[in-house]
Amino acid sequence: MFNLIVKRALWAIPVLWIVATLTFLLARIVPGGPFDAEKNLPPEVVSNIKAKYYLDKPVTEQYWRYMKRLVQGDLGVSYKYVNRTVNDILQDAFPVSLQLGSLALLIAIGLGVPLGTIAAVRRGTAVDQTAMLLSTLGISVPGFVAGAALILIFGLWLRVAPVALWESARHMLLPALTLALSPAAFLARLTRASVLEVLEKDWVRTARSKGLSPCQVLVKHVLRNALVPIATVLGPLTAILITGSFVVEFVYAIPGMGRFFITAVINRDYDLILGTTLIFAALLILANTAVDIVYTYLDPQIQLKD
User: Fold this and answer.
1) Which CATH class is domain 1-306?
2) Beta pairing partners, 273
3) Within a 10 A sphere around the Cβ of 14, how many other Cβ atoms?
């Protein structure tokens, strides 16, 4: 297991380099620049600004200059957030998105997996149909609609939770629930399909014939095998949730990373685009490595090659 972790860490270096290179090139291929929207600035002022950030240099020189800074842990400066480096921006925003995404992930698993399991066990009943109806709604309803509905019900009508900002644990509830609804619905449908598939296996019928209770069969035999495909999707899902959501952060006025993914592209803020993309890639690598490790505990027959 240690060798696996070391190997994945070493592989992460070229992967992140490739991601950084492609993102660097794509950001500059797309028409427009970080200062094109400043139409009131004289051309000579724009030239001076570009010279300040070395944007007047050839692309190859800009690339190697950025890579040199990146190796030193410097993600560059923001062209739109004056006097702020990308490191400063992410240092402030990432902990917020980490808290929000982690809580949303726990809620999604806590809601989706039990709901899908119950639906599979009670297949064809009203419980199954209701669970699948709820999961369909969770997938279909956009985040800004779900967020507005939760604010209306729990914030304005019942007054049990704050509706904005990020100041205490109570402020996390509605945003995390909003962010978790769609993943929970997806996990419910996936869990139902996986559990139904495992329930048809011969060894499940054998376990029942040995006199094991339905609860023992479900927990010790069915769920352990049914969770393997669920663990697979938790890797990318974790990275997506932790890096934030523009919609949820906008609705609840949360100072997280999600809005920077959108605004950085709109503003052609090159270094910020690269910084947010690298954070997402690193989280995806970590999450997928964790999933591979979990595989060995869910199914000992799976052998991971280090």
Assistant:
1) mainly alpha
2) none
3) 9
